[in-house]
Amino acid sequence: MLWYKSWLETRWRFLIGLALLLCSAAATVFTYPQVMKLMPMVPANISGPLGERIREAVVLARDYRGYVWSQWFRQNGRQWTTLFAIILGTAGILTPASGALFTLSLPVSRARLLGVRAATGLLELLLLAFVPSLLIPMLSPAIQQSYSVGSALGQAASLFVTASAFFTLALLLSTFFDDPWRPLMIALAIAIALGIVAQIFRIHRFGHVPWGLLLTSAVASLVLYYGAVINLQHRDF
Amino acid sequence: MVEHVIETSDLRKSFPGIEALRGLDLQVPAGSICGFLGRNGAGKTTAMKILLGMVRPTSGEARVFGRTPDVEVRRRAGFVSEEKDLYGYMTVEEMIRFTAPFFPRWRADLEKKYLRKFNLPPDRKIKALSRGMRTKLALLLALCRGAELLIVDEPTSGLDPAMAEEALQAVVGHVADENMTVFFSSHQIAEVEQIADRVAIIDRGRIVMSGALDEIRESFRRIQLVFEGDAPQTEFRAPGVTHVRRNGRVLTLLASGAPDSIVDEARALNPLSVDIVPVTFKEIFLESVNTEE
Q1: Which of B171, B204, B237 is the last residue of a domain?
Q2: Could you tell me the residue range of the domain that residue B264 belongs to?
Q3: What is the pLDDT of residue A173?
Q4: Beta strands at B149-153 and B77-80: parallel, antiparallel or unpaired
């Protein structure tokens, strides 16, 4: 029954996230023909870091695989998934507004309460990462393009692993605060800062699996989850 | 069978800037209805939360059914919080269906009985219920657990007199039929007198008086001494004097037990008159929590 409770408490965040990500994935596919038409109009002589980025985007966009990776798996999909990972993580574990005292009066350990909430959130996050990503190979034939399901699955797995770290970060922050706003703002600030760092150091590169990032994210998720369990077990309500 | 369902020893809890419990020694015998009486902020809710493992004590010991508060204690105890905080997004029916599987001894017969008795609309969202209806649902969820112990924090808080009476009668009626212990907090003396057979009075984090309600009522007397001039400042050595109050020519003592030795000591002060009068439980409570001599 804790699963049912967790689902009821997070379903709108998940469903809104899924709808937005699906729309964004579809938009990525269907704007490709327009992007191709605009390509010749991009000036080739822009200098500086901005010019370098534009040239890189143009090079990637010449190939549909490069375009999808750049627009979805590096930018839109990653940003949306990270945002909703944080929103799902801040969905209130034992807040006064969510009947905390009633929940705590049940014969259930706090570790199990958190475990069910984390598992529900991660399952929803898994769907947020995979379903819109798999929509891309399904919609691509509509614009006479193709994108392999295998690539989509691999990239979606990468999205899921990195977003999981932000989910557990938000979960940990939620065990410190009664309101959802402070964990949300702090986690978002950290996500934006790390996003800038990733841009500067070009952590995401086309054709390369960022194993270091994935490993770091997985370890960070475990550590942050462990921290959340410890903090929740020691908290007074 | 555990003689005392609830037992605390030198229980202390500090929050930043506040010492909520300062050595609480409390015993609640099995099968009793024990009223936990104290002013607002006396430490009642903190003590109850410690008994259910929601708050960790700073030091001292709390035992329920002879165990440190844990999952097993919560399986055997029902709890109704002061806020009656339930899941606002669930309907009454969903809330019951959610709660029942956690308790192997869930009483489906009582569930039907109280749904009918309390007139709870199964399809209504909890956030749309009045405070009174939410109290009734919280009571239903606690009473149907098949619990051996019911812990209720301010059962009638925020209820109108009719609704409060209905809630209290539900608890009393339930206890009459089931073999259980009830530990409820209140700052309403009339409420405690109505349903409790034992009381524990807490003041500033300590128990200042506890025992069977009838015995407390019978054992306390007010001894009033009137003097010709101002009442003397004196300390009584006779056992049983719990409070002394001077007011002009009048010296008032609150005493428990046989008053003979106190009266003898009082007469030695040469008062104009000595009167022994019975006191109400309300007066006993007010004297117990009154820190101004």
Answers
A1: B204
A2: 216-289
A3: 96
A4: parallel
Chain-chain contact of A237 with B55 (C-beta, under 8 angstroms): yes
Number of Cβ within 10 Å of residue B291's Cβ equals 8
Q: Label residue A171 exposed, middle or buried (CB < 10 Å: 0-12, 13-18, 19+).
A: buried
Residue B37, beta-bridge partner list = B186, B201
Which residues, other chains included, contact B93 with Cβ-Cβ below 8 Å and sequence gap of 6+?
B122, B123
What is the value of ipTM here, to two decimals? 0.85
Residue B58 has pLDDT above 90, yes or no: yes
Band of pLDDT at residue A147, cut at 50, 70 and 90: very high
In terms of domains, do B38 and B10 share one?
A: yes
Nearest CA in chain A to B79: A105
Indicate the burial class of A11 (C-beta count within 10 angstroms; 0-12, 13-18, 19 or more).
middle
The predicted model scores a pTM of: 0.85
Measure in Å the smallest separation between the Cα of B285 and chain A Cα atoms.
Answer: 29
Residues B107, B34 share a domain: yes
Q: Are residues B159 and B257 in the same domain?
A: no
pLDDT of residue B292: 44
Q: How far is A39 from chain B (nearest CA, A)?
A: 51
The domain tally of chain A equals 1
Which residues 6+ apart lie within 8 Å of A222 measured at CB? A168
User: Per DSSP, which regions of B122-194 are E strands?
Assistant: 149-153, 181-186
| pLDDT tens-digit readout, A102-143 | 999 999 999 999 999 999 999 999 999 999 999 999 999 999
